[in-house]
Amino acid sequence: MSLPSPPDKPSPPFSRGGDIYGYVWWLVSSVPKGKVTTYGDVARALGDLIAARAVGVALSRNPYVPKVPCHRVIMSDGHVGGDALGVQKKIEMLKEEGVPIVDEMVKVEDAFWRSFPGGPGPLDTVAKEQVELAKRLRRKDKTFSCEIGVDASYYGPGAGYEIGVAAAVMKCKGEIRQAIAREVVTSPYIPTYFHLREAPLIYSALNNMAREFGKDVLSLFEDMDAVLLVDGDGIMHPRHFGLASSVGYNLGIPSIGVAKSLLTGKIRDGEVVDEKSGELLGSVLEDKGKLYYISPGNGLSVDSVTEQVKSSYPEVLKRAHHLCTVEGHVDS
Question: Model's pTM, two decimal places?
Fold first, then answer.
């Protein structure tokens, strides 16, 4: 699969369908000659300081040099920091543009640019949406006879967009079926916003699997009595709406989050509870010395997901991880 040709210059917000890479490039393209900004300031313009590291990733993939002047983005403490061309080259470029630098530091407040264009950043909008959608998640006691697991891996050139490979693996009545999908990825990994990166890939893989059965995704899950298992969080998320919740809610299917790390909550007697409200968010599964965090995504209760994933890390997720990794390696 080939990457799309980028436009001549970074596009303004949302014109490319929630493109976080593009939003970063667009923001940085507004920093004028003679000024600098910081990774943190760009992240705040995105809508959440937590994205500061992702800003660095996006700039490392910048396909618009010199139209997007990533050399004008420095560390929050004023240190010039690294650059693909090297620190000394970055310092030379900034000095030529009139930025005062002493001992690899910018200390003059007037040199900093924070007047970014646009209104509320996309991450701020997404976070508010997550909070509202979490209130709409249904809770039902039910277990399923079939499971479909999904996972994704990523590859691509050093500049511009990545390619993602998603795998869906179904286990039903002892039979294994699988499907893969490849899509352009428009978001780096941002903690608590993982669905922006991975959900579109999962949708494509599930659509491909459903087509093999001559069905749409919703009909596939209903007719097969299937539940979706996602390598990510459900309600065990700071805004109670992680990747498994997002995919399950948007597709209208039952889903379970099976995460490898704990984003929120406190472990108590094998369960995870919200530290503020005391709400039960999910359970902890130990398998071969590793801990996994099980929580409802959409349509299910904590008791149901704990019963569904109670003995070991799900086979469908192991197979999905292996499949997407192998396919990504073959095509990279």
Answer: 0.91
